[in-house]
Amino acid sequence: MITEADEALLRRAIAIAARAVVLGDAPYGSLLAGPDGGVLAEAHNTVRRDDDITAHPELKLARWAARELDPDAAARTTMYTSCRPCGMCGGGIVRSGIGRVVYALSTEQLVALNPESGAWPVVAQEGPALYEEARTPVEAYYRSR
What is the pLDDT at residue 68? Predict the structure, then answer.
């Protein structure tokens, strides 16, 4: 359930997105808030500026959380973001341990506003293959921990 406090933080994420446009960047902004609603970190999309396809604000904040917060603290945080995180960012969010994500625009709403954003092709993937060879380094790593 999205509260008034959530809406206020979402408005801040939207303001970060608007500021990104003024700076010449893509219109996406996010922030990470602690359990008390205090803002811990903010980011906006810098894919073009940094020439880095991974420079989405959600992934930047997931990396920040994984680096700066212990797992218990990360689990108590909420990410507020102007658009629903993409698959790449979603994976980073899961791995970072962030506890909750609240977003303003759905993927479908974003695509309706910018059809180009939904034009990503499906990349063919094949596998699994070479199980016996591939398992050796994985087993060695997890046995040594």
Answer: 98
Distance CA 111, CA 117 (A): 6
Give me the residues paired with residue 29 across strands.
44
If phi over 0 gives left and psi between -120 and 50 gives alpha, with beta otherwise, what is residue 128?
A: beta
Kindly report, residue by residue over 65-77, the tens digit of the pLDDT: 999 999 999 999 9
Say what the pTM is: 0.92
Distance (Å, whole) CA 29 – CA 43 = 6
| 89 CB neighbour count, 10 Å cutoff | 24
SS3 label, residue 104:
strand
Examine the pLDDT at 118 and tell me if it is beyond 90.
Answer: no
Cα 41 → chain centroid: 13
